[in-house]
Amino acid sequence: MSPLSGSERAALAHELIMSLNDPRDNSVEQAWNEEISQRAFKARSGNATLLSREESRKQMRERLG
Question: Rounded to 10 degrees, what is the CA torsion of 62, 63, 64, 65?
Fold first, then answer.
């Protein structure tokens, strides 16, 4: 028997971790999907304030003190 490759081990680990979350709450997943869709729409339509990675990291460091 050959050992699993790195990607196969990662896939197995992911499945095991995901199984800890069962039963799956579809309402939470639906709410996140809606939030992502709304944020993407705002960004595409120009109605969102977008930050560079550097600015975002700077703000997070300031908030964390």
Answer: 50
What's the CA gap between 57 and 64, in Å, rounded? Answer: 11
DSSP designation for 50: -
pLDDT in tens, the chain (65 residues): 668 888 999 999 988 888 887 677 789 889 999 999 999 999 999 999 999 999 999 999 999 99
The pTM score is 0.50
Task: Decide: helix, strand or coil at residue 16.
Answer: helix
CB 15 within 8 A of CB 23: no
End-to-end CA distance of the chain: 52
Radius of gyration (C-alpha) of the chain in whole angstroms: 19
